[in-house]
Structure formats: structure tokens, C-alpha cells
Amino acid sequence: MDNKDEREGGKDERAGVFDDEGSDIPRPPLSPSPDFSRDPVPLDDEDHVAWLAIGRTKIGNGHRVLQALRSCGTAKAVLAASHRELAAFGFSQRAIENIKGVSWSKAEEDRELLARLGVRIVPMGNEAYPLRLAAIARPPPLLYCHGDVGLLDRPQVAMVGARSATAAGKRRAFDFAREISRTGLAITSGLARGIDTAAHRGALAAEGASVAVIATGSDGCYPAANRELAQELARSGLVVSEFPPGTMPLATNFPRRNRIISGLALGTLVVEASVRSGSLISARLAVEEGREVFAIPGSIDNPLSRGCHALIRNGAKLVESVEDVIEEIKPLIAWPSCAPPMGEPQCEEPARLRFESEGGASFESSLSDAPIAKETGSPADPSQTLVLEAIGYDPATLDQVVARTGIAAGPLSALLLGLELEGKVDALPGGRFVRAK
Hints:
38% of the residues lie in helices and 13% in strands. The chain is of the alpha/beta class. The protein has three domains: 42-115; 149-338, Rossmann fold (3-Layer(aba) Sandwich); 352-435, Arc Repressor Mutant, subunit A. The protein starts with 44 loop residues before the first helix and ends with a strand.
């Protein structure tokens, strides 16, 4: 819930949100600061419409789409492939049925609408598709981009936190975003109230780059109160969505959005979060993707500090200053140069963080541990079925599910994440999980 008591007062560079307590001295950019900007390769009319048709299709994992694209040559050819060919690419029966039922007329309508809005599409396999995002376990097949598409591959730090953030938390998020953006890094967040809004505004105040990943179609804005901010980001930054026009802000869209936020970034900084915050999903996704996770501690009397404290206990880097973030991110600036080819979601030496479950057992999570999850609605994966039966409708800890299934904690964590993204499992406070009703 958003805090209705939040006030936007003051008349300073922070867009009327906070009183300025930070230094106005700009910092030099990181050195070296390579330019990763790439414009999308133009699509011909038929392929453009075909990708828009795919964008409206529950087709599943982007890696399978890319595999099919490499074999078939074009998006239109993928949609025209036979059932047998699509099954050979790993698509589920449900996904194949969706592919065969695409609406070409709706795709044409989308093309006209997006052209009016100035929104461009960046499909997987295109040179402008961000390398970091292509390396995650479930990359979106298509991105709808409003603004500077070149920012997709700019080195980024994700900043996330509570919607009902405290005034101090929002001020801290603004200041960190402003100072981090002055180093040349882009700030990525989710355009939500509270911490997200403060982070975007902090980057804009420094005339830096900011990327907003939204949980609606590119023609929408949630919350509506941030429409003006979204327009400003489209002019001087980038607004990204994986959802086709007309998509409403459904609850299931937000975890999917979070995986893009963490997937675009070299690291994720959590500013304020309760133990039930969706920001912890972003942090856990970052761990699974082998990215850095940072958390700012707070008062033990503040419920919005508990999520950050839990992250720190479990291995996230404690942050007290901007320098704490920069010193970890700076060596990773050339990360895309060692990124795996698209469709191969792991590096030779994936980064690892050590987390502890509620029962004290520990596990290491890395990008290479995470298998590609089945598409939503696909025939039941035996491992997923086993996990769902083991969890049941009574909360269970990771250790309990390990004992019931015999699956190691690392792969099990990846399976639980996939089930959570599909809406089949709910994550509860205390590292517990329950089957969604």
C-alpha cells in the first residue's frame, strides 16, 4: 500500500520532493567508461508485425524463441513452423497452441499504436537486445522501448524498495541515485511510488540516465500519479516493458517486471523493504543471475529495515555510502564484453553469493545453477510437480522442502523462483513457501 501521508514539499533540484542535504559537486565518470549503446537493427514490415504477434503470445522462454529464430531465420517463419518443429525447439503444447492462434490483426493495430506513441521494439536476437538480460534464465522474447534504446546496454545499478517508504528512506534513495548516476552509471527501477520514484528523480536531478521497467503495456502507467515522471523518463531516459499495449497492472506482472530490473543491472541496491516486500524478489533474482546485491541498513525499530537486514544476514553487501556500491560495480563495467552468446545463460565463472535458509543450512546460488524453467501452462515438469506436492498449502521452509524432495538447495531455489514467477507458489516471511491457492 502506498503511504497516503507522504508529502512532496521543498523547492530544490529534487523536483520538489526533498530538502537538499547532499553535495552538488559532480563526480567524474568511471574510467574507463565504454559505450555499449547500440541501435536496434531495423525490421522489415512482415517481421515487425510477426514480432508484435509474438509479443501478444504466451510463448514462454526467450531462449527457446531465439533457438527457433536461429533455425527458422525470421519471426514470421517461427510462427509458420509446424507443430513438430516447434516441439523440437522445446515449446510446450500450450505454447504451440498459442503460437498457432496468434492474432495478426491485433499485431497490425499494435504497430499503428506504437508508431503513434514513439515506442520501438527490441526482439531477442537483435543487436540492441541487452546482453546482461539475454543471460538470465527466462529473458523476455521482446522489449517495448520508449526513449533511448541505447541505454539498454549502459552499465546500470538497480534501486528498489518500499512503496510506503519513510521520508528518510526516499531522501536516501534520491541522494544515492543522484551520486551514482554522476559516475556515469544508469539507475534502473520500477516506476512505483516511494523508493522507485525517488531513485528515478535522483538520476534525473543529476542529468543522468534512468531506466524504468513497468508492469503495464507501453501505453499505460502505474501508478497514474507517475505519468508525468514516465513521460520525462521517455524523453531523457528509457521506459521498458515486456507487455503488449493494453496490458493492465496485474499482480502477476510485477515479479516478471522485477526479473528484468535485476537482469538489466550489474547490481541491485535495496534501500527500504519489509520482510514481505517485492523488492526481496528482485534481490533474490539478482542472486540467481550472479549479480551483486546491496542493502542499506536502518533502525531496528523501523519495519522497513527488516528486509534489508535479512538480506545483509544472508550475504548481501552492507552499504553505508555511494563508494561502497561503486567499488564493487566499477570492476564489472566491462561485463558485457565477457557475456555469453545469446541463448547460453551462464558465464564460465559465475558470481556466487552464499545465503542461509531459516533452518541454518546454507547454499550457494549462481547463474549456472538455474535451469530454464518451463513455460507457464506447460505440461507439468516432474521436478515442479514434486516440489508443489512437497510444499502443500501449509508454509514450509527451504530445508523442509529439501528434505521432502531430495533436491539440493541451489537447484531447488531456482525451481521455487520459477514457480513463484508463474504464480504457483507464494514466498512468505521467514524464508517459507506455500502453494498458491
